[in-house]
Prior knowledge:
The protein has 292 residues and is mainly alpha-helical. It has 11 helices and no strands. Helix 1 crosses helix 2 (45-53), helix 3 (55-80) runs antiparallel to helix 8 and helix 8 runs antiparallel to helix 11. The model is unreliable at 161-168 (pLDDT under 50).
Amino acid sequence: MSGKAGFSSEKPDNPTHGHAIPEGISTAFSWLTVLPFRGSRVFDRTTGRRAMLAMPLVGLFHGLVAGCVFTLTWLLQVNFGYTLDLWVVAFVIVALWEFGTRFMHIDGLSDVADALGSYAPPPKARAILADTNAGPMGVAAVVFSVAAQIIGVHAIMQGAGSTNLSDTGHFSLSHFPTSVVIGLILVPTIARISALILCTEGYHPANPSGFGALVIGTVPKLGTTAWVIAAVIAAFVGGGIVWTLMALAVIALAIPWGRHCSRRFDGLAGDCLGATVEIATAAAVVLFSLTA
Length: 292
């Protein structure tokens, strides 16, 4: 994720920030997706704070994409009797998640895994973090993360109440499995809220320039708390108290994870956010699948 944006001086033709909400949303989608949003033209920590506060909306978008793919699969079965193998559907959903982010989160996971796996002191670890080449730890982390996400998404869809869906893609005609859609929407959203933890006040960037310096430590605790509460409410609606506890567990794990990365790198980098998104996505989808 680092290297995608850096500080910029104010330009004569665009000397100030725009309105906070539209600028934050457009910048978040510009930085974190392939969608053609313009985003802010002034890059500073104000921009970073606004974009990171809107980052869970990016997760919501990816969740809606997954929900639409699942709904289309269900409609094809119900209306036309055309079945799609759920493993293929799960692969398509995860592929869309990764293509939709320009693979930047996978890149961050790979870099962080190599850097942490080196057991090097902070200066050397940061150098490994900045290296564009992927080592064995990075490759293994990516493979395990993507595999866990595909398996978890498949399990959520296959276990739609266990009576609505079979492994070969046969859906019950009685009712639409709403909980599956809610789960697919929650997973990438919770992952971005987990990454938002690392942007909250109290953390500091490892380098004074680059993407990490734009966003790390910029988000007020109240903003992060509001998103956590929203995720808890959505999880309770989708899966009751069990999903609520699971969502909280995934988000809470970002706290020791962020502290560990901060200690190993003497601060946080933008790649740490990408790694958090990937790890939290895998953790959330696997946990949710256990009770789907």
